[in-house]
Amino acid sequence: MPAPLAERLRPHTFDEYLGQKHLIGPNAALRRMIEAGQCPSIILWGPPGVGKTTLAYIIAKTLNKPYFQLSAINSGVRDIRDVIEKAGAEEGAILFIDEIHRFSKSQQDSLLGAVEKGTITLIGATTENPSFEVISALLSRCTVYTLKPLSEEELVGLIHTAVTEDELLKQRNVEVKETEALLRISGGDARKLLNAVDLVVNSVTTGPVVITNDLVLEAIQQNMAMYDKSGEQHYDIISAFIKSMRGSDPNGAVYWLARMIEGGEDPLFIARRMVILASEDIGNANPTALVMATTCFDAVNKIGFPEGRIILSQCATYLASSPKSNASYEAIGMAMDLVRRTGDLPVPLHLRNAPTKLMKNMGYGDNYKYAHSYDNNFVEQEFLPEKVSGTVLYNPGPNARENELREFLRRRWNKKYGY
Fold first, then answer.
1. Phi then psi dihedrals of residue 92, to 5 deg
2. Residue 306 sits in a domain of what CATH number?
3. Which residues, 6 or more positions from 324, have their beta carbon under 8 angstroms from its beta carbon?
4. pLDDT score of 311 more than 90
5. Which residues contact 231 (CB under 8 A, 6 or more apart)?
6. How many CB atoms lie within 10 A of CB 32?
7. Which residues contact 201 (CB under 8 A, 6 or more apart)?
8. For the chain, percent of residues with pLDDT exceeding 90
9. E strand or H helix that includes residue 94
10. Could you say which of 17, 107, 110, 329 has the lowest number of CB atoms within 10 Å?
11. Lowest mean pLDDT among 184-188, 220-224, 323-327
12. The domain spanning residue 357 has which CATH number?
């Protein structure tokens, strides 16, 4: 089976490289430094598919240095130490770490000694602002270079290069008639663009290929699972993950979790969605769910991958196996709708603070009843504006925990809210 088109067309020299002329153009400072045989540890910061990995490879090849590569998605501290040990035996070795922002603090700390001593030259790639995602000690030992999004002209040129220079596509007699759909689907990502071109060409089984917007959309829609792990399918899979937990199926939840992990999804994105679900779909049926999800987010942020997958799995299966209630979610929705319909209703005088004598004379705070001064720390009084008095916004769900809350409210408010 042939390599993907993006791999077949991967450039091997600065002159073949697409874009980033401010860094590697004929007179650019980074290129001059590399061609002079020098390279400090650097961080390449830019959006997906603009050539960070390729640039690291070209730098190593130009310098004729041993090259080692790790991905922060599936590498732990032990992997880092192993590769540093191997690189240390090779003079001037370069260690490239893709998505370095996904490394935890302890993983980034494990790089410090080798970078500081010059045991390795680190090239890190990140789509996130390194000022926030890379620890200051490591960042201070690296030079940050920003890669710019590829222009439409560069991307269109890449399409024509692919169909005219790739040995396999040349055999298909490809004519590029329209490019708008390809550019829209790729979102400026050169790798996704080339994968889309390859997929579209292969969708035509015989004869010459005329690339049109209609052909592109038809081919991509039929092969979405093959093509896109970060576009539409990204949202489909996170939707399936959330709905599996909401539907109390831990098996479905952990399956879709595995799909996201294998697809390179940001673990903090997954953890954030579980924090939301814990409140939206579980709420007061099990308040511990929110504590669990928040702790999961913090732990994954500190530990990183690959070990973070265990924490994500524990949290996902717990949330899926928890009783469910969206009562608090429904309550805030109804409350906001009520506010939009009724406007800025005045706060009842007895609920207002009276920090000045004038306010006190105006009746602010008069007749307010301090709950702790009464039996059971409760006394009936009005907490809503007069116009919406008696409105029920929180309706506890039919589950053990919220049945207790409903009974508590019934005892306190008698018939006022109908609990």
1. 70, 25
2. 1.20.272.10
3. 246, 248, 281, 282, 285, 397, 399
4. yes
5. 185, 187, 192
6. 13
7. 163, 169, 172, 174, 209, 211
8. 22
9. strand 94-98
10. 329
11. 220-224
12. 1.10.3710
Which of residues 146, 177, 212 is at a domain's end? 146
pLDDT given at position 379: 85
Q: CA 100 to CA 252: how far, in whole Å?
A: 30
Written as one letter, the residue type at 340 is R
Confidence of residue 229 (pLDDT cuts 50, 70, 90): very low
At 22 the pLDDT is 92
H or E, element range at 188: none
pLDDT digits (tens, 9 = 90+) for 323-369: 999 999 999 989 988 888 888 888 888 888 877 877 778 888 888 88
Whole-angstrom distance, CA of residue 262 vs CA of residue 256? 10
Residues in the chain: 419
The CA dihedral of 250, 256, 258, 262, to the nearest 10 degrees, is 180
Indicate the number of domains in the chain. 4
| pLDDT confidence of residue 234 | 63
Residue 248 has pLDDT above 80, yes or no: yes
**Considering only CA atoms, which of 98, 71, 69, 134 is closest in space to residue 306?**
71
In the predicted structure, residue 228 carries a pLDDT above the cut 50: no
Q: What's the CA gap between 214 and 192, in Å, rounded? A: 18
3-state secondary structure of 36: coil
Whether a cis peptide bond, with omega within 30° of 0, leads into 348 is: no
Angle at 349 between CA 344 and CA 353, to 5 degrees: 95
3-state SS assignment for residue 265 = coil
* 226, 244, 272 - which closes a domain: 226
Element (H, E) at 283: none
First to last CA, the chain: 66
Q: What's the Cα-to-Cα distance from 100 to each of 61, 72, 178, 369, 408, rounded to whole Å?
A: 21, 6, 37, 57, 51
Task: Kindly provide the residue ranges of all beta strands, DSSP E only, lying in 142-286, ordered along the sequence.
Answer: 143-146, 174-176, 209-211
Q: Which residues contact 102 (CB under 8 A, 6 or more apart)?
A: 72, 73, 266, 267, 304, 305
Q: Which domain holds residue 393?
A: 343-413
Query: Letter for the amino acid at 32?
Result: R
